[in-house]
Design a protein that fits this description.
Elements (H helix, E strand, L loop, with lengths): L24 H30 L6 H26 L3 H28 L4 H6 L3 H24 L2 H15 L8
Helix pairs in contact: 1-2, 1-5, 2-3, 3-5
């Protein structure tokens, strides 16, 4: 077979990658906001560990180590899924929406909701707050705002088009992966 003939020994056309799909601004912003949410979770974990070691009089070292280990594993998996979402993987966008947008958001708001449902008032928040509350509350606000905003950006029209396009390109024979 002559060089440069455009076909392989099997008679198939050689793999020619097409131009990489451009990641829309909305997906990039969503990606950065998801990373911000993860960073807020990491910071909260660090603060809670430091607080339990140096400020809190309670013990529970083994439970703390297990909890931190579980969180580290979750953070690693979440960052991987977020990276796949940025590449245009529809399964990753769905996983991020359900796991972080749904379950993750619930984990952020369940304690305050239960506290209010227990008959407490919003005005009591500041009168009963301790040092940990004043450190964690702003982190949680950033975390929550990042999650909600990331969700919105992830489903804007140009993001929807990107996820449809990269999925159809990925399924086409001889197609290249999105970078």
């Amino acid at each position: 077979m002559a060089k440069g003939s455009g076909s392989t020994a099997t008679g198939e056309a050689p793999f020619k990658p097409g131009p990489p799909q451009k990641v829309p601004r909305e997906v990039k912003v969503s990606f950065l906001l998801w990373l911000t949410a993860v960073a807020a979770g990491v910071i909260e974990t660090i603060v809670r560990v430091i607080y339990s070691l140096f400020v809190s009089s309670g013990s529970g070292g083994e439970a703390d180590v297990t909890g931190v280990a579980i969180r580290v594993i979750i953070y690693i998996v979440v960052v991987y899924i977020i990276m796949q979402m940025r590449l245009g993987k529809r399964w990753a966008r769905l996983a991020v929406a359900v796991l972080l947008g749904g379950i993750g958001t619930l984990s952020l708001v369940i304690d305050p909701i239960l506290w209010l449902a227990g008959g407490n008032s919003v005005s009591e928040v500041f009168t009963e707050a301790d040092l940990l509350f004043f450190i964690i509350a702003p982190i949680r606000v950033v975390h929550f705002a990042a999650v909600v905003t990331a969700l919105v950006f992830m489903f804007l029209p140009s993001a929807n088009t990107y996820f449809r396009r990269t999925s159809s390109v990925a399924g086409a024979p001889g197609s290249s992966t999105v970078v």
